[in-house]
Amino acid sequence: MSSMSLKALLIVIVNVCNINGDETPIGSTKELDYTVLAGEAENHKSDILNFLNESSVREQYKTLYNRLLSELMAESPDRILTGGSTRRIVSGRNTSIAAVPWQVSLREKTYPICGGSVVTDVWLLTAAHCLLRARASELSVRLGSSWKTHGGEMYDVKECYVHPRYVSKTKTNDVGLVRLYSPLRFSARVLPIRLVAKEARLPANEPAIVSGWGKLKEGGPSATYLQSSTIRTIAMKLCRRSGLDRKAIDPSSMFCAGSFSQASPDACQGDSGGPIVYEGVLIGVVSWGLGCARGNFPGVYTRLSYPMIYDWVHSHITQQTENNTAL
């Protein structure tokens, strides 16, 4: 473990796009429009978790997710994963917040430190290790903006919680919660995402989507405009045969995704706690890795379906909004 770099992560971009160039950010068209869902979510804010679990709502999220996935994978054949390989996927793309409206930028004294996801009107999900250093009074979040440094709305943090079984040395149970002072107003650019079901099995070799503002390459600059990329899940038996220390991987509370035998898009320094989404459902949290986008070193994510994690998260977020007592 001493040789392993357990650090904050986000999206590594293989081919960096210039936001000032001709590229239109993904999600800026009407094809990826959460406006209708946002209006319905706002009307069901007092019962948002049940609303997100409605079959019709789940289908709408899945449809919009698949549109984003199609755009990300429609670059060119040589940038798409072929066969049954877990290698190259697709480079990160400039992405409008409207395509991933649950994305959060967590900040310490206004400086971006991590990512996160909106799960209710007052609760945000992130990584436990993002919450170890700062007090809640020193934290804030930016929502609703594609830009890391401006736009959207800023919210103050009331309380933050680290999973009681989190182990900092190994990153086991790496999940945390942030509670806001003021409820969010849902819109096409600020919207919660449904959490994966308890004990749900995660299929291997399936494309998921990661997003955030982290470093564009290992040791390089961070993104100023939101990035997203497809990244494939990796079977646990393969992950434990990779270059990662197999003893560091806890199959219960972690899963792997990304590069296996070649460099590929990956999560990197700058935005641990950010979302990894599959079929419109939040399945994990960016947790740790060794370097960024190195061949044979996949990224490791917190498994939100693990009962010990799922139960703890839901014990908090199911509490009534008006309950302002410490948890």
UniProtKB/TrEMBL annotation:
- What is the protein name stated in its UniProt record? Peptidase S1 domain-containing protein
- One GO term of the biological process aspect: proteolysis
Any one Gene Ontology MF annotation carried by this entry is: serine-type endopeptidase activity
Record's keyword terms, sorted = Disulfide bond, Hydrolase, Protease, Serine protease, Signal, Zymogen
Would the keyword Hydrolase turn up in this protein's UniProt record?
Answer: yes
Q: Which SMART domains match?
A: Tryp_SPc (SM00020)
Entries under InterPro entries matching the protein: Peptidase_S1, Peptidase_S1_PA, Peptidase_S1_PA_chymotrypsin, Peptidase_S1A, Trypsin_dom, TRYPSIN_HIS, TRYPSIN_SER
According to the record, the signal peptide region is 1-21
Name the SUPFAM superfamilies for this protein. Answer: Trypsin-like serine proteases
Q: What is the lineage of its organism?
A: Eukaryota, Metazoa, Ecdysozoa, Arthropoda, Hexapoda
CDD domains attached here?
A: Tryp_SPc
Record's family?
Answer: Belongs to the peptidase S1 family.
Keyword Protease among UniProt keywords: yes
Which residue range or ranges hold the Peptidase S1 domain? Answer: 89-318
